[in-house]
Amino acid sequence: MTKITIADLKKIKDKVHSQTQMREGSFKGKVTIHMGTCGIAAGARAVMDSLMEAIAQADAPEVVVTTSGCAGLCSQEPMVTVEIAGQEPVIYSKMDPNKMRQVFKRHILEGEVQTSFALARG
Amino acid sequence: MKVFRSHLLLCGGTGCHASGSLPVKAALIDEINKRGLAEEVKVVETGCNGFCAQGPILVAYPEGVVYMSLKPEDMPELVEEYLIKGRVLTRLLYKEPLSKETIPSMSEIPFFARQELRVLRNRGLIDPEVIDEAIARDGYAGMAKALTEMTPDQIIKEVLDSGLRGRGGAGFPTGLKWKFCAQSPGNVKYVLCNADEGDPGAFMDRSVLEADPHSLLEGMVIAAKAIGSNQGYIYCRAEYPLAIHRVNIAIAQAKEYGLIGKDILGTGFDFDVEIYQGAGAFVCGEETALMTSIEGKRGTPRPRPPFPAISGLWQKPSILNNVETFANIGQIILKGAAWYSSIGTEKSKGTKVFALTGDVNNIGLVEVPMGTPLGEIVYEIGGGIPNGKKFKAAQLGGPSGGCIPAQYLNTPIDFERVTELGAIMGSGGLIVLDDDKCAVDVARFFMDFVQEESCGKCPPCRVGTKRLLEMLNDICSGKGKEGDIEKLIALGNSIKDTALCGLGQTAPNPVLSTIRYFRDEYEAHIRQKRCPAGVCADLVRAPCQNACPAGVDVPGFVSLVGEKRYDEAIMLHRERNPLADICGRICFHPCESKCRRSTLDLPLAIKQVKRFMASQEKEALIPEIRKNEVNAEKKIAIIGAGPAGLSCAYFLARLGYKPTIFEAESKAGGMLVQTIPSYRLPRSVVDKEVAMLQKMGVQIKYGARLGKDYSLQGLRDQGYSAVFLATGNPYGSKLGIPGENLTGVTDAISYLREYNLTGKSMPGERVTVLGGGNAAIDAARTALRLGAKEVSILYRRTRAEMPAWEEEVHEAEIEGVKLNFLVAPLAAISANGRVSALKCAKMALGDYDRSGRRRPIPQKDQDFEVKTDLVISAIGQYIDKNEILGDLNVELSSNGYVKSDPLTGRTSVEWLFAGGDVATGPSSVVEAVAAGEKAAVSIDSFLTGADNAFWRTEKPLDTFFDPDADPTSDVRAPLQSLSLGERMGNFNEVEKVLETSAAICEAKRCLRCDFRAES
Hints:
Oligomer: heterodimer
Largest sheet of chain B: 5 strands, mixed
Radius of gyration of chain A: 16 Å
Distance between the termini of chain A: 47 Å
Shape of chain B: elongated
Distance between the termini of chain B: 70 Å
Order of helices and strands of chain A: HEHHEEEHE
Number of helices of chain A: 4
């Protein structure tokens, strides 16, 4: 580390804050991967890995990832719920790593719901 | 930094490590690695999270779920459920102690929700060993502002305007201290931080050091800029290794970033800081002693002036502030003085951190705005007192502080109010004491500490505290003398005035403040050689016996029952309390609430054992009577055949007197037969024990009422040499609302007395009882048995405040009595001259009253009507002093009862003694029995000039006890009672007596606290 300036102080603050802001309960987007036994069996793990990778690549730590149990619609697994702050959540079904990357890029970052994989709103 | 989907923040202060957070962390990381989650889940060790009672605590983000009381073996399940399957693991969530609800998120747990975090704003949120995490939460932003945008004068003005006062104890305005030092001439000045926290029970500074060390460093740099200093020291006790470790890391990281050292942030300002480790002497928390210690000398104080601002460390101008004070500074500069002073009271601004500990459910670290009422801290945040005990006092300020008792629960806690009450804010140690704590013992504990820590430089402290301690030790061991209290006060005050430093000047506070609020306890220790709380070992044979107002030898009779020696057991009981069978039915058993078996499982069922014992006796056995022909000739009158009168007559008879009891009604027993329903106390039980008295030579005259048929003076004129007044509280208080004279409105005492004495009663189908005491429950259950279709009790507070015994309330509910809380009557409404409804107001609980309970306050516009045809008020009882005293001039107490010495029953008239409810107000049977015994002893000593109370000598006990054996593992015998069907429409006794085997088993559960090894 080297000595820093006031501008650096601000930079560190902004960078680390975006990585730790989930601890304050605020986030831009939230993706819930359904990880019941059915979800895991249908490949939810790989979906989550691809999402984590995508987030890291896009340097978008303001998107948080959580998991949840079975949603009761096991035939549609792996399912993923995407919530963008201020909008209705969207549930995607029969996801795979490719679809996940697409949803991340197009829906979460660019705001366009990927209706072709969407199961429902809410 | 890498992106993680989840951050798991595990608390890791010294307290957390002690409760096992390190093995939990290891197990968690191990499990995460095993499950291949290391790349997506981050584990962060934070400082203390505050809720130490529930530690170790893990907060899981992004959901913000809080898991508590974790163990390493919980980790696989937690990882599986929470991280892999995404389910909240309910088993490890916080459970609200009262409602038993589980609460998953921090913001909804009352302990956290009611706090205002400023000093502790980063607790549990950042890794204290990573400077970037502190910076992310505005760390060093205030410092940057102070160094680049502000002059020293502006900094000082901002701090002055904020109203910040020193958080180390005395509350001196921080800005003023800085101003004096800034104005002091000299190029070399020092910024010192007092991290020598040494009060028993205080750990807020340690927590800041461990959880957020950068906030301290930032405050110190700003202070340095303000006064023109380039060197600082943090004086921290060596007993805080984790704090020192983390502060050292913080200093190293800050230096690397250039936030400390040369040319800070390129502004040209230099400031260096290092830790000086103290050896843990309490006196080194005093500022001059602390500086002497840093200079490398023995830490002793020196006189002030000169003050440190003029001549401090190495005779250079210095400022000394404590950790919490410095931790406020960064935010004051960043957010401004107005922001800071927006909360708090007029003279105390901002927040205060308290280390909440002692007898309180939620032990931990809390930060609240100045001016928060004590009651809110103890009950709302602290979750109240464990095990249903009562709040006695809060000890604030450690060994330099004092106690704040229950009547001041409303006190807004700030510097001024706390000082007025005789405590000090100190550094914020807040020890909650329940009613099992002895005030004298508490004072002795702190005095022992101060005496040990006195540096010995000045005689007032060195010799004075030693002498105070010796006197307290004497009082606690029963060697206290009359006049000791005055000596303690005089010596305490002169130590306050003459000691050299703050330690000595405040050392007498715990003694003076406990005398101020609990003088009666000191007096009990000195005069009666009794420790009311049952703590002081030399004065307490067994806590149960100590708690019994009549002093019954509980371990004695219980262990005799255990050996089936029933006659001996009951005779031993009757040594101190003649009404063994009656008390076996209805005593409210204060003995059980002090029983030490409760620390193992549940208290011994002493009352049930007593009932079993008394039921073995068909005809009451006659105790030892010492015949005395002189005494037998003396005429003694006892007025009232209630428990106090019966007890007095019994003990007088044992001394050979032949007293006469005058009873206004046609039956002996007073409230026992007039108001206590026979389903609780069968009349044959009373008859048995009254017959015993008559066999002992006591005469009872029925049907003569004091004030109507005879007078006190008249008795005296007839040659009675002493009179014991025990007329009780015979009248039920009126409601004082419109319509209270309507037909169908009565009071519980009249209602119960009419039924119990005549068998007739006021009719009612929809009965409304007003009140929350035992009389209310008795009236309600009686009305139900007399055929009422619906019986409701309306009480203006909540169930928690009801004075009625919980067992009785529970039985009433089982029988179908409806309980309505937070309701108060406004008016009785009539139809055809008879009550038809009751207009009521809804209440809500407000602030705390002098009894330490929350006061009910009527709610506007929420009045409603309750349909009813019989209203029974049970809101209190009173005496008619004209009726009982007549023309005799007898002093009354401040609450209108007959004033009598609680130890002797003596009144202001030489030959008149008084005891029981007439002297104390409504109380219990066993209290009345005790008062009767005391009056008997004192009447005898009035007549003979000697103390002849032979029954007070402790009886040797020869029951078998093996102190090396483990206690029996039997559980407390459950109370057996009649089924609902067996109770209705009759007055059969509800509670059943124990079977012989169960009673013996129960008796053997006794831990025999009375046992002393032969020496």
